[in-house]
Amino acid sequence: MNNTVIFIYARSDSSRFPNKCMSNLSGHHLIELIARRCLKVVEKHNLYLLTTDRDIDDNLADFFFNNNFGEVIRGNAFDLVDRTSLALDISNASSFIRVNGDCPLVDFHLLDICIDYLKNGIRLVSNIWPYRSFPYGISVEGFSRDYFDKLKTFALPHELEHVTQHLYRLSSILPSNSIVHITNSLYDVSYKNISLAIDDVMDLKRIEKYVGDMDVLSISFRDLLYD
Questions:
Q1: What is the CATH number of the domain that holds 88?
Q2: In degrees, to the nearest 5, what angle opens at C-alpha 159 toward C-alphas 168 and 140?
């Protein structure tokens, strides 16, 4: 059975912007906005919040679960490879897409493309590797479970908190026809100076200006950059 899920990785204790997942953008908590955009391409039973097992993340986990956005999996605070392995066991997924909790405008069109590739046997899908072809914050990364399981014990200590670094580093074990780099016909070098991710309060204010009065549940990054 081919079952692709989306894992949203989020926690509450960012040093630069504590509790940012519960901050507000255009009337929506960031974690709500990310979840609703993901739910345009997957059912609720295939959307998971992966947060930590610490008390500080209780409110985040409760908010996600109580609003029926999807399932919640709580695990190791510092080893995201281990947390991902736990989530794959619980979800029984055949592949997963990584979404970051600081990227409120995750592009559902790209998620849909990624899901199609994974369902058709591609084992690594990315628009950030081997180079970034979309603005920062509009990332899509998808991996087959068999590829992840094969390499999870080979992650170096400094890679454990990044989920995917070791999967790219060791990607040469994959046949070239099982890797897809999603490119962008609209790409230009100015993307290097554009970020749609939220690291601190100033990022949130900047993105609020980008968005203006547009519907944050349905806009794409193209609406922001090329309108």
A1: 3.90.550.10
A2: 45
